[in-house]
Q: What sequence folds into this?
């Protein structure tokens, strides 16, 4: 896989794990702590306890959030929107996985699983195997933190510690994956960090490993207009200074805004899948979680699609 962001871009110096994974977990922890949460991830807070998450800390600390709201209501609205986005996305993909196992799929692969705790928190039918693919330091970190608190997987969990730029299908096979069985794949929170050719390659590799009847769920790559990206970077910088937080990295700097990127549903529909998309902005509205997104309100491409597909 070509041209992924460099490791140095993505890792938190202290723990060695991926910053983007910590930010997603911070939003899940924050939602879990809300009075009427859409999702409950009891492990997310534990998993980020040690992470330097910069301005995202405001999502976990009411007094910081109040300060942020009075200093910059637009950025507060944006963070609030990201928390809701994460909640809606987690719920959507939880339902996708639950539906797949209800349909007797017993092999699940979570690509770039990061600090996803589904293997620990969902109800899994007996005989299900979950494969988590991510970099060794991310999976080791997650396993170590949860094990130290006596938290064990609720399913036969196989960690596939491999960089997606390397021969990950071979590593998956080596962990016991059977390509002759239908599989439920999940690619959440990854495509936006890949350039267009790497996206195509990943989807192609998944297709090659998918028996008829397999399922695939993908969060497409959101893209911010150039002006919004610069504005958000500046706002984050200002707010981090105002709240005395160290902003380790700017998410906007890690994203690929690749104009040549394939539309995932179109790509899948011409490569052996039957795919449909639901827009996350619509999903936020349906679940009464739409607050407009503050500064990205007009940026319709900033709201990714949730794509689900079945292998024909
Ligand atoms: C935004 S996080 C999403 C994690 C998880 N899917 C979630 O939604 O919480 C992106 C994940 O992609 C992983 N990732 C990025 N590039 C990778 C690569 N080249 N090989 C393996 N994993 C990679 C990171 O380690 C990180 O855990």
A:
């Amino acid at each position: 896989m070509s041209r992924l962001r460099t490791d140095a871009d993505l890792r938190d110096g202290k723990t060695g794990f991926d910053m983007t994974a910590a930010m997603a977990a911070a939003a899940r922890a924050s939602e879990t702590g809300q009075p009427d949460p859409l999702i409950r991830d009891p492990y997310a807070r534990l998993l980020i306890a040690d992470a330097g998450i910069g301005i995202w800390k405001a999502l976990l600390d009411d007094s910081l959030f109040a300060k942020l709201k009075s200093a910059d209501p637009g950025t507060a609205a944006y963070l609030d929107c990201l928390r809701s986005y994460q909640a809606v996305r987690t719920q959507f993909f939880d339902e996708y996985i639950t539906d797949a196992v209800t349909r007797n799929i017993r092999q699940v692969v979570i690509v770039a699983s990061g600090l996803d705790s589904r293997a620990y928190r969902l109800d899994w039918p007996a005989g299900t195997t979950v494969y988590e693919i991510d970099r060794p330091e991310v999976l080791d970190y997650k396993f170590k933190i949860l094990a130290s608190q006596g938290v064990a997987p609720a399913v036969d969990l196989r960690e596939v510690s491999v960089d997606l730029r390397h021969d990950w299908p071979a590593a998956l096979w080596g962990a016991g994956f059977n390509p002759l069985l239908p599989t439920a794949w999940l690619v959440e929170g990854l495509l936006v960090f890949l350039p267009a050719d790497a996206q195509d390659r990943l989807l192609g590799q998944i297709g090659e490993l998918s028996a008829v009847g397999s399922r695939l769920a993908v969060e497409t790559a959101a893209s911010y207009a150039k002006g919004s990206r610069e504005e958000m970077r500046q706002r984050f910088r200002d707010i981090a200074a105002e709240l005395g937080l160290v902003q380790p990295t700017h998410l906007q700097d890690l994203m690929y805004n690749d104009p040549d990127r394939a539309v995932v549903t179109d790509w899948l529909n011409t490569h052996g899948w039957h795919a449909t998309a639901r827009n996350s902005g619509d999903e936020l509205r349906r679940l009464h979680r739409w607050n407009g997104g503050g500064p990205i309100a007009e940026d319709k491409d900033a709201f990714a699609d949730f794509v689900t597909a079945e292998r024909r």
Observations:
- Residues 19-311 form a domain with the Rossmann fold fold (CATH 3.40.50.150).
- DSSP finds 13 helices and seven strands in the chain.
